Amino acid sequence: MALNVVRNEPSIEVAPLSVHIGAEIGGVDLTKPLPPEQVQDIKAALVKWKVVFFRNQMLDHDGQRDFSRQFGDMTRGHAVYGNVEGYPEIYAVAKHRKAKRYTGEPLIRPWSGWHTDITAAINPPAASILRGDVVPPYGGDTQFTNLAAAYNGLSETLRGFLDTLRGVHRFAPPTGVEAQKEGYDEVQNRNTMVSEHPLVRIHPVSGERILFVSPSFLKSIVGMAPRESQNLIEFLWEHIVRTEYTVRFKWEPGSIAFWDNCSTSHLAPSDIFDIDFEREFYRTTLVGDIPVGVDGQKSTPIEGKAILAA
């Protein structure tokens, strides 16, 4: 008869980077298949710290794909913008990729650029894994925020109100710009996504209440007048990016960020456009489930299909 073995010590090294979010993980070699106990301990660290980072992991496309699949099914590189040729699960995050998509000057506000990946889908990704390949010597940091801590930082009265609300998430260009006419508008039109999600979702593993208010995708709150909706949304966006809920990660060659997309938003850097250095990263994404609200009701699709495994 097999006995259950209880491990008193974790199989990995976990070094927290801030009070509410972010930890570096050591004692692992991601170029090789991980033993089951390390996979489980990384998963536990991810749930607790929302985003975990690895250093000096020199992976190529095959290595990143092999590491990622140990944690779940992978989606296509990007549900709208495609993938790296020959690697359907990998998306290239190049420095100037957005310059080809949009025209116009975006409206910049404190929460501009912050987002939870593709919440316009009925089943937003569960997690994302980003690998630094070509990394500038300085600049280009990525920031993450803990949406569970942000929820808990609100008053009990407001939390109770938000628990009852739902929001419409749409994949659309940022305010102040429009899609380029040469290709990207057609791509977005072919892959239109609109979903209604609870404003507060229940984390599928921890059971935490998450303030599910992605600034780049949440467009309105169901049942509210436009002015009411916009004022509440902007208050929540301002709240979730408060510094005490965030962590800022400085990249090095071989760095990897692995974030829980259910409970975080993140901000890609804009300072890289002020320097001449190149920046080339690659991302894999794990298939997610349909969010569930405090009342037990699932999100509902309005337009578009679920994100499936690649």
Protein traits:
single chain, 310 residues, alpha+beta, Double-stranded beta-helix, seven-stranded mixed sheet, four-stranded antiparallel sheet, 18 strands, 18% helix, globular, disordered N terminus
Portion in beta strands: 25-35%
CATH homology superfamily name: Clavaminate synthase-like
Mean pLDDT: 90
In total, how many beta strands?
Answer: 18
- Give a quick account of the main beta sheet: strands, pairing sense, barrel closure: 7 strands, mixed
The string of secondary-structure elements, in order, is EEHEHEEEEHHEEHEEEEHEEEEE
What does this structure look like?
Residues 1-6 have low confidence and may be disordered. 37% of the residues are buried. This protein has 310 residues and is an alpha+beta fold. The chain has 6 helices and 18 strands. 18% of the residues lie in helices and 25% in strands. A hairpin with a 6-residue loop joins β1 (13-16) and β2. The chain has one domain (13-303): 4-Layer Sandwich (Double-stranded beta-helix), CATH 3.60.130. The longest helix is centred in the last third of the chain and has 15 residues, at 226-240. It has a 7-stranded mixed beta sheet, with helices on one face.
